[in-house]
Amino acid sequence: MNAPIDSAQASLLTDPVNVSRRRFLAGTAVGALVLGFGLPLGSARVQAAATVAGERGTQVPAFLEIRPDNTVRLLCPFMEGGQGTYTAMAQIVGEELDADPATFLVEAAPPGEAYVVMENGMRITGGSMSVRMSYPTMRRLGALARAMMLQAGAEKLGVPVGELTTEPGKVVHAASGRSVAYGELAERAMDLPVPDPASVKLRDPSQFRWIGKPVKRVDAYDKSTGKALYSIDLKVDDMLHAAVQHAPRLGMTIGNLRNEEQVKAMKGVHSVHRLPGAVAVVAERWWHAKRAVEAVQVDWLEPGADSKVRPMPADFSSDDYIKRLAAEKGPARDSENEGDVAGALASAKSKIEATYHNQYLNHGQLEPPSALARYNPDGSLEVWLPNQAPDMFRADIAKRTGLDASRITLHSPLLGGFFGRHFLYDSANPYPQAIELAKAVGRPVKLIWSREEEFVRDALRPVAAVNFRAALDADGLPIAIEAISATEGPTEALAGKQGEKNDPTALEGLAGKSYAIPNKRIAQIYVKGPMMLGYWRSVGNSLNDFFYEAFLDEIADKGGKDPFELRLHLLRDNQRLTTLLNAVGELSGGWKRGPFTAEDGSKRARGVAMASPFGTQTAVIAEVSIENGQVRVHDIWQAIDPGSIVNPAIVEAQVNGAVALGLSQTLVEEAVYIDGKPRARNYDLYPILPPSRMARVHVRIVESGEKMGGIGEPPLPAVAPAVANAVATLTGQRIRSMPLSRYTFT
Amino acid sequence: MELRINQKTYQVDADADTPLLWVIRDDLGMTGTKYGCGLAQCGACSVLVDGNVVRSCVTPVAGVVGREVTTIEAIEADEVGKRVVATWVEHQVAQCGYCQSGQVMAATALLKNNPNPNDAQIEAAMVNLCRCGTYNAIQAAVHDLAGQPATKGDA
User: Fold this and answer.
1) What's the CA gap between A612 and A717, in Å, rounded?
2) A318-360+461-742 CATH choice from 3.30.365.10, 3.20.20.80, 3.30.70.1520, 1.10.630.10
3) Is the pTM here over 0.90, yes or no?
4) Chains A, B: CB contacts under 8 A, how many?
5) In chain B, which residues have their Cβ closer than 8 Å to the Cβ of A415?
C-alpha cells in the first residue's frame, strides 16, 4: 500500500497495539527482560495471583510491577475515562508504597477476582465509587508492596528488616548509609509471600506527600499529543473493518436486502452480513464499510411478539409520552413517607402544587463505540472494548459465545468519555456484532459505530414527570411536601420490570433530601416505557434535584421567603449542610438574589440549589442574564463536601466537567423521538454545550472529614435548579422543564 | 495520489473523495486524529493544512494534494505546537482526552497565524466540542499562550 511506513507504524501493522508487545515476566532474569510494554495480562504470575481467593486487594503481584528503571506499573481495577482515577490510584498506592505517582504507568486490570477491591464486593467504574469504595484497600495494597520491598532489601543488604526504612523509590539503611532502588529489588520482592494484611501499618495522614495534593495527571502528556490509545484506535494483524446500519427502530428485523449484489461489488467490500437488528458490511477500510453499509436498501420488518429486545413502536412520540407521564394517576409506591402528609395538606394555611418534567438525553461521549474481536487459532477469543465493568462484560461474552470465561481475554482501553455509556446495555453495545463478524469472516474485525448508528442505539437518560404538592404554615414555612414521580428507573428498565422495592436510581434526588420538613412523601408510579434506558452522569439526581430544588424555590416564593434563607432555616440542625451553604454564599461574594444590573449593564439574577448525590454534598449558586431570548449563565459557584479528597486539582476539573454537562442538559440538550425515531442522530440536530455557552466556574472544596463521597457525578445535579431558579427570579417565569431552549425569554 | 503529511511524502491509493481523516487513520495508521461526528460538528478530527486548521472528516483527500498536512503526531516538531502541548500539560487540560488532539491543533493554528489573539479571536477560533467540559481549562491555556493573564473562561 503506502510508503513510507516508519518503524512505529510498521509495528502497528504486525502487532496488536498496546497488547501483544507485552513481555512475559516468567522465568528468572525478569528485570532485565522487561523491554516491552510491561506485564502481560496473561502471564503466569498475574493469572495465578488473580485467581487466588483471599482478602480483598492483597494479591500484590497481580497489581504491581516495578521495573529496573524504577517505574511502577499499576494494573488498575478502575477504567480511566477522564475522571482521573488512574492518577488517584497512583497517588493512593504510591503514598503507601513510597513511590512518586509521577513514576507510575497505569493501565486497566483484566477481569478477575483479584481486582474486586470495592468494599461493596463489586468491581465497576461508576456511581462515583472508585476511590471512596477502595481507598483503604488500595492504601493497604501499597503498604503491603512496601513491606515486600523492605523484606527484599533486608535480604539484599544483609541487615535486619527493622533497621530499614524507605524513601521514594528506594529502601534505605540509614546506619550504613546504603540504599537500594526498588527497581533492583522488585524481582526478589515480588517472589516473596505477601505479608499478613493486618501486619502493615498505614501512613499517618498528616505525613501524606501525595494524597490530598494537586498531583499532575499521569495521562496528561499522552492525551495532549494524540498518543493515548482508545478502543477506536486499536489495530491487530490481518484485521478487517466493519460498519453497521441499524434498524431505524429497535426490535425491527431484516427482511430483504434489495441491492445486496450491488453493495457486494462496491469498492473495498469484503462481505455483507445480516445481524440481529442490523446489517453489516466488512471491508478492508472502515470508510468503505461505512459507505457500503449506508447504501444497503433494507426492507425492515416490524418486531415480532417474541422480540428479544425492547421494541420501539412506530407511533412513539417522546413529547406525548411525557404528557402521559404527567397525567398518570397511580398506583404509587412510597420510597419515603414520614409524618402525615395528607393531614398536613388538608389543614394547611396555604398550599402549592406544580408538575415538572425532564427530557431524554444521549450520552454523547465523543468517542463513538467500537469493538475489536479476534478468534485465536486455539479457539480462544480476544475482545478490546470500552467498558465500565470488565467482569460483567466477559460473563456476557461467555454467555453469548458459549465459550468458557477462561477462554476469553478482555482488554479495556482508555475511554473517550463515558458518563454511564459503557455499562452492559443489551442492544446498545457493538461487541456482540464484532464477535459475530469475526467468527463469520475468520479474521479479526474492528467494528466502529458511526455517530449516527450510535445515537440510534444509545441507552438514554430516563424521563419523569413529577407532581408536587406542599403545605405551608401561617409563617410561610413548608410543613409538608409530596412528590409523586411517574417514571421508570434505569435499573428497572434493564430488568424489564419493577423490583420488590422502588429503583433507588429512579427517585434519588427526590428521596434523600435533608431539609427539615416534618411531613413528606416521596413515591413512584412505575410506568414501563418503550425506550432503552441507561445510567447518565449523576443518574436519578440529574433530573430529580432539578425538580425538587426548583419546587423548593416555588415554596419559598409562596411563603414570602428568600430561597437561600429558607434553605438555611430548613437545615438549621444540620451543621454540615449549613456550613456548605454558607460556604457557597461566601464564595459568590455573599448571597444576593437580584435582579440586579451588572457592570456591563445587563440585568442579572442568581439562584441557589443543593444536592446530596453519591455520598457527597454540594451547593451551587448560578448567575444568569437573558441574551437574544436565551439564557446566558455567567458564573457557577459550587461548594462541594466529599468528606475528604485525594486530588484537589482533579476535583476542580471534575466540578468544571459536571457543570458543563449540567449546563448542557439545562440549556440545550434533548433527545426527541417522533414516530419511534430520534429526530437527531448527530451533533448537528442534537446540540451539546459549546464553549461559547460555558460559564466561569468557581470551586470551594470543603473537607468535613465525614465518610468519603464521590467526585465524578456529584457536582452535576444542583446546576440545573440553580440556573432555573435564577431565571425565575430574573424573568418571573417559573421553569418546570428542561431544556431551557424550549422556552422563549424576553 | 501523493500526499505530504508531517514533512513526509506518502503514496496513497484512495478515492479522491475519501475523507482525509480516514486516509490518515486507516491507510497511514496515525490514530491521534480522532473521529467524533463525521459532519464537521465537533472538531476532534482537526488537522492543519498549510498551517490552517481544517476538519479532516469532511475534507476530501484529493483536496490536500500538493499541500502540507500536519497532524497531532508531528505537533511537537512545530515550535508553536510544542509550546501549546507544554501549556496543555501545565494546565492539566485533558480529561478523557479524546477531543484534545483537535483542541491542540486548533490552538496551534490560531497562534501560528496570530501570536497575540484577543478574547474575541480566541473565542472565534476555539470552537471544538468537549463533552468532558474542559472549556475553562482550554481558555486558561490559550490565554496563557496568547500572553494574556489566564482567566477562568470569558463568560
Assistant:
1) 9
2) 3.30.365.10
3) yes
4) 201
5) 96
